[in-house]
Write a structure and sequence with these properties.
3D domain-containing protein; six-stranded mixed β-barrel; alpha/beta; signal; Barwin-like endoglucanases; single chain; globular
Length: about 140
């Protein structure tokens, strides 16, 4: 009996995160586009004086899966906290930062303080998928937030 209870507990712990991911996927229509992807770090030479604070006020920490987007992409639906899948990466990233207005059709992948990793990434053309909420009326990720 104890074995069955232990097995059931382990099964719940393993399957519960998978179910929540499926629910997350089902909340969006996924659109694709090709963009230029670069990488950035939370270091003074690449940001302003508040190296860990993103454009909307989020505090970025190493290991977070987040990106900055060029301002033209904001108008295409990649708004604050939009989920984004990036070709070549596992998992889902979130839009947490905006790039300078001079950049077009570009994302910048946050790589914490690992400058060497960002340099190795360089600049690449990648296909991204981004989630548009199925219930636009319930959408909370606004361009101006």
């Amino acid at each position: 009996m104890r074995g069955l209870i232990s097995f059931t507990g382990i099964l719940i712990l393993v399957c519960l995160p998978l179910l929540s991911c499926a629910d997350e996927e089902d909340k969006y229509t996924w659109e694709s586009m090709e963009v230029t992807a670069t990488a950035y770090n939370a270091v003074a030479s690449q940001t302003d004086s508040l190296v860990n604070i993103a454009a909307w006020g989020d505090t970025l920490k190493p290991g977070m899966k987040c990106i900055a987007v060029s301002r033209d992409l904001l108008k295409k639906g990649l708004r604050y906290d939009t989920p984004v899948k990036i070709e070549g990466f596992e998992g889902v990233f979130r839009v947490k930062d905006k790039m300078h207005g001079r950049w077009v059709n570009r994302i910048d992948i946050f790589m914490g303080v690992d400058v060497e990793k960002a340099r190795e990434w360089g600049r690449k053309k990648v296909v991204i998928q981004y989630g548009i909420p199925l219930n636009e009326g319930e959408e909370t990720n606004l361009v101006g937030k």
